[in-house]
Amino acid sequence: MLLVFGVMVPSILVRELIEGTTGSDPLADLGWIAVPMAATAWLAPRASYRRRDASWWLAGGFGRYVFVVIVWRVALLPYRDWPPRPDEAPRARWLREGQQAGLWHLPGPRGQAAGGREVIPA
């Protein structure tokens, strides 16, 4: 929830700055969605979404929905239970041991987990 507010409040401030400076409503509206679009594109791969899903911000309320789902998944990244995308499937593995049984583990680039933590081989 904090991440949602951390993105939406600056986007509202950007909109108000643009509208106060130029007085142009369409330009201010594009400025309003620029910050959440950038945040959605940056967070999307960590939550098994594609960067292009940030373009849903151009389709009204759908972008807000996609952003909230991505933020929800990023918050629950240590407890990843959603299936990987087809292009992530070769790297993903299904955990079977201990408290993490039934969860997916997706190592990131260069031996990092999807959440940015270093993976220690067992």
Write a structural description:
This protein has 122 residues and is mostly helical. The chain folds into 2 domains: 2-75; 79-122, no CATH class. 44% of the residues lie in helices and 3% in strands. The protein is built from 3 helices and 2 strands; from the N terminus they run αααββ. It has helices at residues 2-22, 25-43, 62-75; strands at residues 93-94, 104-105. A two-stranded antiparallel ribbon has the order 1-2. 16% of the residues are buried. The chain crosses the membrane at residues 56-75. Keywords: Membrane, Transmembrane, Transmembrane helix.
Descriptive labels:
single chain; mainly alpha; 122 residues; two-stranded antiparallel ribbon; 44% helix; 3 helices
Summarize the structure.
With 122 residues, the chain is mainly alpha-helical. The protein has helices at 2-22, 25-43, 62-75, and strands spanning 93-94, 104-105.
Topology (elements, then pairings):
Blueprint lengths: L1 H21 L2 H19 L18 H14 L17 E2 L9 E2 L17
Helix pairs in contact: 1-2, 2-3
Number of helices: 3
In percent, how helical is the residue content? 40-55%
Average pLDDT taken over every residue:
76
Number of domains: 2
Task: Give the overall shape, derived from the CA principal axes.
Answer: elongated
Number of strands: 2
Instruction: Give helix and strand order, one letter per element, not per position.
Output: HHHEE
**N-to-C terminal Cα separation, in Å?**
34 Å
Which structural class do the helices and strands define? mainly alpha
The description of the largest β-sheet is:
2 strands, antiparallel
- The gyration radius over C-alpha positions equals 18 Å
Low-confidence stretches: 117-122
Strand order of the largest sheet: 1-2
Keywords: Membrane, Transmembrane, Transmembrane helix
Transmembrane segments: 56-75
